[in-house]
Amino acid sequence: MEKTLVIIKPDAVKRGLIGEIIKRYEAKQLTITKMMMLTPSRDTLVKHYAEHEGKSFFENLLAFMMSGDVVVMTITGPNAVAQVRKINGATKFLDAEMGTIRGDYGVDITANLVHGADSTDSAKKEIDIWFGL
Q1: Do residues 74 and 84 make contact, with C-beta atoms less than 8 angstroms apart?
Q2: What fold does the segment set 2-131 form as a domain?
Q3: Does 52 qualify as catalytic in the annotation?
Q4: What is the mean pLDDT of the chain?
Q5: What's the rounded Cα separation, in Å, for the pair 63 and 127?
């Protein structure tokens, strides 16, 4: 079984989409193994988004992610990383297919509802950042 990290971002939390998003993962027989809701700290986000530090959008991304609560989850299942990314849809919501989270609910490039780790290595690193495992 593979494990990945998902973050339901502040825009989705504020719009009341937590249940709908979780339902989509569970419908594909993925299992939530850990979950917490919190307003993330700058330190945690800097670690999480380290690869983007210095880029023009970095500070706006941090400000957005600190703007409210997020739901952070570890999700386990066969091919969990790839499945979650397919369910999430393309990062740019206009490129995301209908039937995906971003395709159905996306309205902004930064406020794009969800984050899913892009590889098993990234998932391990991100789980450690958020859950200290």
Answers
A1: no
A2: Alpha-Beta Plaits (3.30.70)
A3: no
A4: 96
A5: 21
- Binding-site residue ranges for ATP: 9, 57, 85, 91, 102, 112
> Which residues are CB-contacts of 95 (< 8 A; sequence separation ≥ 6)?
none
- Where do runs of H (alpha helix) occur along the chain? 10-14, 18-27, 42-48, 58-65, 80-88, 101-105, 120-131
Candidate list 96, 115, 116, 129, residue with the active-site label: 115
| pLDDT above 90 for 41 | yes
90-128 tens-digit pLDDT: 999 999 999 999 999 999 888 999 999 999 999 999 999
Under the banding of pLDDT at 50, 70 and 90, the label for residue 76 is very high
